[in-house]
Design brief:
Oligomer: single chain
Strand content: 5-15%
Strand order of the largest sheet: 1-2-12-7-8-11
Radius of gyration: 21 Å
CATH class of the domain at 78-95 and 218-453: Alpha Beta
Distance between the termini: 30 Å
Number of helices: 22
Helix content: 40-55%
Mean pLDDT: 95
Number of strands: 13
Structural class: alpha/beta
Largest sheet: 6 strands, mixed
Length: 481
Amino acid sequence: MPASQAILKGLAEDGGLFVPEQIPALDVPIEKLAEMDYQQVAYEVMKLFLTDFTEEELKGCIARAYDSKFESDEIAPLKKVQDVYFLELFHGATIAFKDMALSILPHLMITAARKNQVGREIVILTATSGDTGKAALAGFAGVEGTRIIVFYPKDGVSPIQEKQMVSQKGSNTFVVGIHGNFDQAQTGVKQMFADKGLAQEMAEAGFQFSSANSINIGRLVPQIVYYVYAYAKMVGNGALKNGEPLNVAVPTGNFGNILAAYYAKGMGLPVGKLICASNENKVLYDFFATGTYDKNREFLLTSSPSMDILISSNLERLIYRIAGNDAEKNKDLMKSLQEEGRYEITPEMKGKLEAFYGNYASEAETAAMIKKTYQETGYVMDTHTSVAASVYEKYLSETGDTAKTVIASTASPYKFTKSVMSAIDSKYEGRPDFELVDELEAISGVKIPQAIEEIRNAPVLHRTVCEVSEMKESVKKFLGI
């Protein structure tokens, strides 16, 4: 299937995820990539996957995505802190790494709709654990020919994440809190995608579903770019020799961000170890340790809510790869996950995971890392980034591997002010998130992002809350069908 059609569909008709038939090799030397800006690197990477987009179409999408919406001209700057490099992926409109892909997805989707003569209105249906929701809303708000519906766990996101979503303007936007957790929201969305009767009703009313979650291949491909960009920049500034391995530590929930690094490695980028960092919902740590994926466990609400996930959707794409691209084997394992909540991979498949290292950080370790890094360097990181930094420290002490390492910094500390400030000093405990914004600016020396300024006093525009069982009805009501 052409890439444009996969982007439009979001999810395959049998409920599976779209994957590239093969991982293409980078065809531009690293030294040349090192001289390019972010937008140029994005084109060189994305053209290899999105092969049915013309050069003009793809460059147009990239130019409209990576523009003044980002508060850094570099788009994804690298900050050296002691011996590691933080790849700051949070300088976009909603101060989280999801902007890196969701700023371009609407443009890819509208271009794909034109290419495929789609006459129906595209309804973006998305579940969020906190960051995807706002980034998708910001990307699609006001985009002609689209509507966007976002479901989030009512009590499972930070106050700032919630305010970002419920204050979203745009007559084509709809935000719904559910009485449940992220996994239930994500499962509900997947069930609607698979509901043939609903698809028929939608078609008759002039609508079709697509997804902005990382299950959409149009989300995953742009995420590969920043790993290539980071490596090239480090070679360009002399931090790395060309060909020298670079380890990557990624705070991991739905597995898309670290899968993008795995795909970059598959393209020939000299990525060494893929350090998969979990919070106390350590389903991925247990998987890498044992070869068994088991979601039958208590769901914990942590200070890193975007990683509070027990069903890591994008892991399915990795399983497909290590199963020798065997779609039937992959389908059997996913069926087992759906029916029994668990599956076990073969020893042969587990042997293909040697590039990965998994570990997790407790709540106490996450807070301690924020405090320690601030006290030693003055650098303030958010809770998710701290999970990755904590796990990287464990990796270093276990292995002694001193290869240069990039930590994916996935959100601004301003998105989780209460957790971050309380970690730095207990005197901030119990104070509301918004009250601590100015305090964070004072101690970090980092200007308050526009994304925070604009929601401080923004009115709440979305008040819908429903049970998990009512998700379908709320979608139909919004669409008037």
